[in-house]
Amino acid sequence: MSDRDARGGRDARGGRDARTTPDRSGPSGWGRWTALALLPGTVCALTLLGLDHTGGQRRLAIGLAGALALAGALFACLRRGPLRAEGRTHPAAGLWTYGLLAYLLCGDGLLTALVSGGPDGAWPTSPALLAAPAFAVLPAAWCVHLFSSFSSRARRGPAGSRGPADFAAVARSLLLALVGLFAAVLTCLYLLAAAVFGEDNGGAPGAHGALPSTPGGALVPTVTVGTLLLLARLLTVHGFPGAAATGLAAACALEVLSCASVLAGRLPGCDALAVPVRAVAEAWGAAAVPALACGAAALGLLAHATVALPRASAHTLRPQHHLVKEKPEMTPQSAARAAAAAPAPARRHRGAAR
């Protein structure tokens, strides 16, 4: 048996590494990755400020440079600090993430144009839809850090202080509290960004004016997408990249299918394909479609995380409790018998060799 298995690094489901990310905390460590997590929001704000004060070819150049800088900042945040997954990422997770962010930025305007008979021109976008998730990288990093630190500190604590069942219950409560706290912080960030950019109706694009505005504008889809990405990264960091990628792919597929169904409904005899999406968009607005898609995926990942993460973390406590419990039961007589039994096979082996 390898040292990794002996330390309890395998979970009960058969070989998956269930240990949390090593605690990289410390005063200096906190400062480094906190400053790094602020970088995406800073780059996004500077890019939007530059786009607001320029035009023509300079505007295009600033937009391209800002997009590349933002991608580089996000890449750095995922390779340092609490959001680092240490090689456990799913190959397609990045593709689904970019798809969700692209739909968050432009999808509502596109769907509104499709339902209205277009698209017949450029659809509007909202700067707050990009600024709020960019600044939300910092609270996401802190939420992952707090959960990982709690798991590491509980495993390093006294062996009899908390059993696996008690630890799982506390970890589940902490997980739910952190997800709710992140959703509240992301809501405040979106409302602040919408106020800074002077957007009416919560920043919801109203292309062609054909659909009613979603209550809260684009606030609900922004919060659901951010929460979905947080849960996916938390699962990836703690050794469940497959489940994270499945949730992201499901949400992205629902969003793509919603637009495709409206287009397919224009074909002869295929009107029924567009009825569900049209009904939702005409009743609650185009922003309700990504809100439902990402909200359903986020609830699925949350249900999985509340079971998998506490169980996987608590499972690593069992070998430690077992070792501590066995040591007091070792008596001097049993220790002497174990020491005397060790040379016996060696003597028989030498005799057989002669």
List the helices and strands and how they pair.
Blueprint (H helix, E strand, L loop, with lengths): L2 H4 L20 H26 L3 H24 L13 H23 L11 H9 L1 H20 L7 H33 L22 H19 L3 H24 L10 H10 L3 H28 L1 H13 L2 H10 L1 H11 L1
Helix pairs in contact: 2-3, 2-5, 2-6, 4-8, 4-9, 5-7, 6-7, 7-8, 7-11, 8-9, 8-11, 9-11
Plain-language structure description:
- This protein is an all-alpha fold and 354 residues long.
- Helices cover 72% and strands 0% of the residues.
- It has helices at 3-6, 27-52, 56-79, 93-115, 127-135, 137-156, 164-196, 219-237, 241-264, 275-284, 288-315, 317-329, 332-341, 343-353.
- Helix 5 runs antiparallel to helix 7 and helix 6 runs antiparallel to helix 7 (164-196).
- Mean pLDDT is 75; it is low at 1-27, 201-209, 317-329 and 345-354.
What is the end-to-end distance? 33 Å
| SS-based class | mainly alpha
Q: What Rg, in angstroms, do the CA atoms define?
A: 26 Å
Give the number of DSSP strands. 0
Largest sheet geometry: none
Helical run tally: 14
* Average of per-residue pLDDT values: 75
What is the molecular shape? Answer: globular
Roughly what percent helix? over 70%
Low-confidence stretches are 1-27, 201-209, 317-329, 345-354
Structural key phrases:
mainly alpha, 14 helices, globular, 354 residues
Question: Summarize this, please?
Answer:
The chain has 354 residues and is mainly α. Helices cover 72% and strands 0% of the residues.
